[in-house]
Amino acid sequence: MSRMVLVNGKIYINRGVFAEAVFAENDRIRAVGKNQEILKMAGEAEIIDLQGKTVIPGLNDSHMHLLNVGMGFAQAKIIGVTSISELIDRVRGFMKEHPEEAKNGILSKGWNQDFFTEEKRMPTRDDLDRISTEIPIVLKRVCGHVASANSKVIELLGLDETMVHVDGGTIETDENGRPNGIFTENAVALAADRIPRYTLEDNKRLFLRAADYALAHGVTSVQSNDVGNGQLPMDDVFRLLHEVYDAGLCKLRYRHQVCVHSVEEFKNYVENGEFKTGIYDNPQMLALGPVKLFKDGSLGGRTATMRKEYRDDPENYGVEARSNEEMETICRMADQAGIQVVTHVIGDKAIEDVLGNYEHVLHDGKNPLRHTLIHCQITDRPMLERIAKDDVLVAYQPIFLDYDMHVVTSRCGEALSSTSYAFKTAKELGIHVSYGTDSPVEDLNPFPNLYSAVTRKDKDGYPEKGFYPEECVDVSDAIDAYTAGSAYNEFCESFKGRIKPGYLADMVVLDRDIFTCDPMEIRDILPEMTIVGGTVIYKKQ
Fold first, then answer.
1. For the whole model, what pTM was predicted?
2. What is the DSSP string of 296-334?
3. Residue 459 lies inside a defined structural domain of this protein
4. Are residues 395 and 449 both part of a single domain?
5. How many CB atoms lie within 10 A of CB 80?
6. I need a labelling partner for 521 at 20 to 30 A (CA). Which of 22, 179, 338, 455 fits?
7. Which residues contact 223 (CB under 8 A, 6 or more apart)?
8. What is the pLDDT of residues 122-171, one digit of tens each?
9. The domain containing residue 34 runs over which residues?
């Protein structure tokens, strides 16, 4: 039996309510209150003096890709490049410094043409051929919905001889009808599949490295889409996670979001695969969650589907990744099997269409399976009211504002921008909101994400009063979305996401008081200690 007592702290219970001390026994919180009353029941417990530090519940990322985060540690770092030349130089440098990792091919993610200071265009095969024409190279845009590939990839796919049609995606061509190396949406996986895979043991190592990174940043739970995202065969990912957790190697709580690519694939997993045969003996550590679908693309790549054409790209309404008919079929199959559905939707047309699909499987106007909209960025007031009426959940990524605030008005217009990324309105309407990072699209560090929700400023503090500041939330709402809100997504709100008796003893000790510090400092907060199930998993050195 393990016992732990934290004393002399500022322990967040709920809005405006704090305790001095907390007593945890085994993996649960047994009591919270004042120092003396908690110490009386401690017995032989380990006592940790917090010396006035602030404690919040363990943070729970409601949508991300943890295995991809791990793979990123073995890939060329191309996030933040400011030109195609710098992109080329970074990948060349990676090849020189990591010849073993690069010898069979390179797959990396992170460029963003809107950050380029020279030509603001997407890299093409000709650009990537300056890195190498001997090995396949695929470099994904930061959103993951667009990728650039070199001529070796084109050759391996045989595209110079015979073009391939990809449902829900495109293979772009130049003025001569020649593939230019740019792949979008479902075609991205076609290119990425040309890069040789890591071994199972390599992937375990990288997964655990990513989990350690999460824990060191106060994230104690993740709801992660690693199955079906194109990096590994689906069954291999299930196997990897089972082996890691069955062996007790990982202390980060993990819930699957399972991406499927067709009705037939989903039918197989429901009738004969993991949704029927998967064994999850300890779902508080490893759980099988929802089916994850894609409806559209990204705002930055102009592939999010819109009701009106892009203002800066006339006649472009985005790319539909899955038809309404296929969405409808999968939603009905999921409803019959009792499986939650979570769907990537960014453009207002995508949100509108998926709401229609969800409404067809509501039960007496209720949403018992807690179907969810992931991202849900471009909205107007009637749409938000419709989401609230349907009791559909929303998994937001406030950190997306860091980039999107600089392009959304040019893409969508001022009126629609003012009602988008509507964090406060969603809360006021009673929508069940959770927060996540979509890492590695953004870093999984939760504190820049919380900063974005509270200030609606970019990393440089722009604009001075925030981007449509009426949609700022306060610190309590932001933390609640990242803890209790995320727990609600996974049907765990009765025992997870709060520091209360009977709840899981997942807590984070912060290096400063998030409730009173200058909001600009929130992005710089780091944990002093991360506790999972009443055990200190990470301690700052």
1. 0.88
2. ---TTTT-S--SS-BTTBTT-----SS-HHHHHHHHHHH
3. yes
4. yes
5. 12
6. 22
7. 60, 61, 62, 63, 64, 255, 257, 289, 436, 486, 489, 490
8. 999 999 999 999 999 999 998 989 999 999 999 999 997 677 788 889 99
9. 3-58+501-539
